[in-house]
Write the C-alpha cells for this entry.
Amino acid sequence: MKERIIAIANQKGGVGKTTTVVNIAAGLAEQGKKVLCIDLDPQGNLSDYLGYDFSLPRPTVVDVFKGNAALSDSIVTCEAEHIDYIAADITLATADMFLAQTMCREQVLKRALDADKTADRYDYILIDCLPSLGVLVTNALSAADGVIIPVQVQKFALNGIVQFEDIFNLVKENINPALNIVGILETMTDGTNMAREVDKALKERYDGLVFNTSISKRIEAANSTAEQKSLITKRSSVVGDQYRQLVAELLSKEEN
Ligand code: ATP
Ligand code: MG
C-alpha cells in the first residue's frame, strides 16, 4: 500500500476497528515495519489493549490537540507488541468544546504531525477512530493518506458505510484531496445467510475495494481484548493468521 498514514474508521460502534488497528500494527511490526498507533477515541480502548498505565501523568493525544505537547513527547512504546502509540483518555470526549475556538479545527492532528516530523520516523501510522462522524474523525481523515473501513457483516452494515462515505467525500473535496479508501474489511464473519448477503452487496457496490481477506467471528478475538494481547503474537490463532494475511495483502498493494 502506498498509503502510510491510515485511519481505521466506521461510525458504527463495535465493528472491530480497535482490534483491527492492534493486529495490523502487530502484523506490520512482525514484518520489520516501524509502526505508530494513535488512539483517537475517548474510550481509550486501543490504549487499554496496549497496556497503557492511565495513572501516570504523561501527555496524551488530548495534550497534542490542546497544543500543550508535541506529538513526539506523547509517544509511548508497547514492548510486547513492538508498537509505539499515543494514548487517549476520557478527557478527549470534550474535543468539541476545546477545539471550538481553534482555526481549521479539522486539521489539528495534521498540523501536529507536520510540525515535528514524527511521521518520518515511522513506516506506518494507524489512527484508531471513535464510532462517530464528528470533529475527531474529520481530523483523522484530514491527516491520513488512506482509510480502512471495517464492516461487521450483519444487517444494516451498508447503511453505515453510505453515511461514512458522505463524510469521506466532504473531507476529500474540501481538505484532503489525496485521501483514498485503502479497503473495506469484512469482520466477524460467521457463515450465516445474512453474512453472505452483506458480502455480496458490498462487493457489488464497492467492486475491488473489499479486501480478499476477511476476519472470522471467534471468541479468541473477544478474549484478546481482555488479555491485552494481539492475536498476531498469540500462538496458533486463527484470527491472528487472518490478520497476518491481511497485512500481506496490504503490503502486496504497496508493491503494485
Ligand atoms: P468501538 O466502535 O466501540 O470503538 P470497535 O469498532 O473498535 O468498537 P472492537 O473494540 O475492536 O470494535 O471490537 C468490539 C468487540 O468485539 C470487542 O469486545 C472485541 O473483543 C470483539 N471482537 C472484535 N473482533 C472480533 C472477532 N473477529 N470475533 C469476535 N469478537 C470480536
Ligand atoms: Mg474502538
